[in-house]
Amino acid sequence: MKITWYGHSTWLIETGEHRIAIDPFFDDNPSAPCKSNSINADTILISHGHYDHVADAASIANRCQATIVANFEIASWFSSNHSVKNTIGMNLGGKANLPWGSVKMTVAWHSSVLPDGTYGGNPGGFVIEAEGKRIYYAGDTALFSDMALIGKSSIDLAILPIGDLFTMGPEDSVEATLLVNPKHVLPTHFNTWPPIAQDANAWAKLIQAKSSATPHVIQPGDSITL
Length: 226
What we know:
The protein is α/β, with parallel strands linked by helices and about 230 residues long. The chain contains six helices and 14 strands. The protein is about 20% helix and about 30% strand. The strands form two sheets. The chain has a seven-stranded mixed sheet, covered by helices on one side. Strands 7-8-9-10-11-12-13 form a seven-stranded mixed sheet. Strand 2 (about 10-15) and strand 3 (about 20) form a beta hairpin. The relative contact order is 0.15.
């Protein structure tokens, strides 16, 4: 399983013949190493409705005939407003089975409004299961104690925000790592713009000092393999 970061909170998971894009934000993302027209995916996961998480979802979905998986409100918005043919609308705590595995929507403490001002439903994160691995993508969230419940499912990789201001910062991300107790952890939602600039290497040192997880600091366009 290959996991690639494209800057901000945009990720691509490659598992077997399948490609799963998460929160696709390429064309207006100053840290993205490529544009959306170079990305192929058959599934697109969307954590919440903010522009920097949905911007290129419709163009990729319509070009690739991909399925958008999101909360019910966001899935319906893409179907009605962007003619996306394949959507799965779900809600917190729900699980959807897909050709490559499954995805469960978890709680995230944040907000969710779509780019045109439409209510974006509850923000969320995802536990992604494929090839016998579990990846927890927290989405944009504050620290919350029920992350410990997510950790009970034996998480192989956690992807946690560290940018602060709009999400939890590095110190809370370390606390989240202790609660989730993953084998590996990656930072997300940082260094896109000055208000969320962070020293990821300093964060990684905190993770190493305080948890048993292995931190990975990668650059946009780089990957790790599980």
